[in-house]
Give the backbone structure.
Amino acid sequence: MPDPLPETSPDPSDDTVTLYVCTTCRVAGEADEPRAGARLLDALRDAAGDHAGPGLRIEGVECLSVCKRPCTVAVASRGRWTYVYGDLDPADSARTILEGVGLYGQTPDGIVPWKARPQEFRKGVVARIPPLATPDAP
Amino acid sequence: MPDPLPETSPDPSDDTVTLYVCTTCRVAGEADEPRAGARLLDALRDAAGDHAGPGLRIEGVECLSVCKRPCTVAVASRGRWTYVYGDLDPADSARTILEGVGLYGQTPDGIVPWKARPQEFRKGVVARIPPLATPDAP
């Protein structure tokens, strides 16, 4: 008799959390280049070297269309809710973002209890979107 | 020799477009129940009977976290960008939303050319999020 199927996916890539960082975001009154969003991306990549697990993918994106609330990121993962956050400081928020993303990755559905969320995520939430139903789902 | 794999997925469910409608949205000064978002969901389902194709799924959601810009919807599809829109009228926007979603479904990536987008989608965009990379993608 074959072994029963495991309850969790054997493919770790299914559980990957993607952190999208808008590299187009700029902060009023600041020099144009490098833009605040690009600086936040660099800060996140630097900080991730110390703090991020192997299941995190950090990706720069040209515009998340949240131009009035720089800097902006989105957190997404297959089967979990997607969250978009704005009003993030390009210099000081990298570790906080990675902590929040770490909590997200520990949930089955992407919903971190309100009290456990970093203050920046509570105040900066721009939108959230449910996970897409799988083709076999009702 | 086996037939070559088709270039497009043979599973039409992969191409389904999901329209999420926030049913929690309410408009200032209006009666609490039914909420504006719930009324928009009803209007969309009514209008979809006439205008929507078989590849559209309309789903009510409890809160898309865009509470300051009611009414709010999100458009998502596997392999396409996700868009979130706000400032939508619960009574008058249903057909416009369905037209915009129809254009979205005709694109390979979800990006409708700016000039082709309904005015409500141009002004009401809240955020956009890239499609998740497939596990096999680089």
